[in-house]
Amino acid sequence: MREKIEKREELFLSEYATKAVNTKGRLVDEPKCPMRTDFQRDRDRIIYSKAFRRLKNKTQVFFSPEGDHYRTRLTHTLDVSQVARSIARGLDLNEDLAEAIALGHDLGHTPFGHSGEAVLNRLAPNGFKHNEQSLRVVDVLENDGNGLNLTFEVRDGILNHKKNCHPATLEGQAVSIADRIAYLNHDIEDAISAGIISEGDLPEETAVLGNNSKERINTMITSICRISEGKNFVEMESEVKEATEKLREFMFQRVYLTPEARSEEGKADRMISTMYKYFCENVKQLPEMYVKLLDRFPLETVVCDYISSMTDRYAVHVFDSLFVPKGFLLQ
């Protein structure tokens, strides 16, 4: 079955696509799966990882929003996967590789979104970036400290999914641009639901993209496929790219950096800072797996591993258990 899929890739994918048979391999060699290509196997390993499951209770933009339809880090990840697969399909790239990268790109995100990331970046001696932590999750932390042993192409795409990075594959480029398409449009929907902005507030220059998220996403993907088909790059047409950048600037000014979106940021900062200091001073209070990691990595790195792995809810629970007094039960 695997060989059948690999032959199909050779016949039907673009000359610029990354074929599974041409993978640069894994950190540790292992026998091939008889049913799945290496990229399909990587996708499955990510889906069944603990870090992937935890994304459902991690903040996207709004901390613990009251409502059933706000995005979480998991729904964002699924959005990115869908957009990346649409781009890959339109350009005859490897959908399996794009999907695997997309599903793994945010595994290293902290509780409380980019606010939590900023705190750890300030506290850790070597800084903290969620894309680097996502790679560390799949290389080291998953599978009880043994990692998932993913292929080079998936690992590269995870590490280099941020805007100013340079993925080695077109599938990685597709995920990077899909990430921006997904978070911009779906964060707009959440901000409108929260009453922070309305559709009418969006800059006039972005009208070329469409009148709602569905139209904007379709315009962006179509633009990418139109200009990138048969080319060794993945990007938007200039007019659409400029409108997208204008939309991004608007979101930072009116949503991401506003008091509404950052109302709980100070509390999250104090919580994470306090826990970071506590675990650096009380190593034995770390879970057993993280204590074992101290044989291989510096203390500050392992403390970041533990805190960044937490969901929003679990971070609050740990903080409460450590620092909030419990009442006595009187008989």
3D structure, described in words:
Helix content is 59%, strand content 0%. The relative contact order is 0.13. With 331 residues, the chain is mostly helical. The mean pLDDT is 93.
Question: Descriptors for this entry?
Answer:
331 residues, mainly alpha, 15 helices, flat
Largest sheet data:
none
Compressed to H and E, one letter per element, the order equals HHHHHHHHHHHHHHH
Structural class: mainly alpha
Distance between the termini: 67 Å
Q: What is the averaged pLDDT score?
A: 93
Q: Rounded to an integer, what's the Rg over CA atoms?
A: 21 Å
Number of H- or I-type helical stretches: 15
Outline: flat
**Fraction of residues in helix:** 55-70%
**What's the total count of β strands?**
0
Please report which band the strand proportion falls in: under 5%, 5-15%, 15-25%, 25-35%, 35-45% or over 45%: under 5%
Low-confidence stretches: none
Write the SSE topology.
Layout: H1 2-12, H2 38-47, H3 50-54, H4 73-90, H5 95-104, H6 113-123, H7 130-145, H8 152-159, H9 170-193, H10 213-228, H11 238-256, H12 265-281, H13 288-293, H14 299-309, H15 312-323
Helix pairs in contact: 2-5, 4-5, 4-9, 4-10, 5-8, 5-9, 6-12, 7-8, 8-9, 9-10, 9-11, 12-14, 12-15
